[in-house]
Amino acid sequence: MAETSRIVIVGGGAGGLELTTRLGDRLSRLGQARITLVDRSRTHIWKPLLHQIAAGSMDQDVHELDYLAQAHWHHFDYRIGEMIGLDRARRQIQIAAHVDEEGREITPRRSVPYDTLVIAAGSQSNDFGTPGVREHAISLDTPDAARHFHTRLVNACIRAQVQTAPLQSGQLHVAIIGAGATGIELAAELHYATRQLVAYGLDRIDPNKDIRLILIEAAERILPALPQRLSAAAAALLTKLGVQQRTSARVSEVTSQGVGLASGEFIPAELVVWSAGVKCADFIRDLDGLETNQINQLVVTETLQTSRDPNIFALGDCAACPWLGRAGATVPPRAQAAHQQASHLARQLQRQLRGKPLQA
Taking a C-beta distance cutoff of 8 angstroms, is the pair 7, 36 a contact? Predict the structure, then answer.
């Protein structure tokens, strides 16, 4: 009897968790394959919801999904840890030791063997080397970062409530760098959330005068990747909410006091959020010879197989996938794309196990 095929998925985000769940239900439950999910977190939360956690308008516990429970319900194995290396010759991935908040080791460094590997490691904010971003700006890449921002926002409001001196320049101002989907959704959410926060008893703060939200975008308009009509509609709505929009404004630095622009202008702000582009984790760039592009995405074919190893697939934000019908374009890093690719790959890996060719 042939050995059960081992399918390992790295990354439990929007695409990776959907793929793992589908394969667990369809293959592992019937003993046709062994499915393993590797992720450094214990729980999943849908990344497009992080701006709501940052604003404090969503109860994270309601939307969080525990990987161990999901694995039990859907017949796959869950391994906690961060992928740090790959040995294609031996078909193994290396996982770093996992430690708790107090520095105690939970699991040692180890290897996980695979027959088929799917990398769905997502993406992270790209600061493009801009001075001060890492030190003074918050990127909403993880639930921890979103919670950190919310804590700082509440603390800023409480500080302003109890101080006897007038508000300083930039106090209670939030600068959001990058007016893509994440930036404008955060701005709109903060408009409502800050008013609710003030209504809880912070009566010395005037949300219409004291709290200022500033969107900063290097392109000529907000939502530059979307059609002009959608950009104009969003701009009009944000203007009604009192959100300032600074377009054609390239950021040159971020400091503890605010944001410096290439024009020489300085925008004072107590809180700065960076949402101006994404890249993939640096470890992907040196992954045993796999081909990557300038933002560390794995180059894949129309079947989502990596260009240099047909046994390794990639999907979601970390995959530079050809966009069929658009010469030279790749599928944009969006949750919708990750969902579509996961659904497609779930069917294709079943075809592969049956010896059928993969479809684009």
Answer: yes
Helix (H, G, I), strand (E, B) or coil at 54: helix
**Residue-level length of the chain:** 360
CATH class of segment(s) 126-274 = alpha beta
pLDDT, tens digit, 9 for 90 and up, residues 51-83: 888 888 887 777 889 999 999 999 999 999 999
**Short-list 12, 118, 24, CA closest to 66:** 12
The pLDDT of residue 1: 34
- Looking at the structure, give the CATH architecture of the domain made up of residues 5-123+280-353: 3-Layer(bba) Sandwich (3.50)
Domain map (residue ranges) of the chain:
5-123+280-353, 126-274
Determine the Cα–Cα distance for residues 140 and 150; give it in Å rounded to an integer: 11
pTM > 0.70: yes
Name which of 348, 244, 249, 333 is nearest 296 in CA terms: 333
Burial of 16 (0-12, 13-18, 19+ CB in 10 A): buried
CA distance 315 to 337: 9
Return d(Cα 53, Cα 213) in angstroms, integer.
17
| Residues β-bridged to residue 278 | 125
Alpha helices in 43-169 (DSSP H): 50-55, 60-63, 67-74, 133-136, 143-162
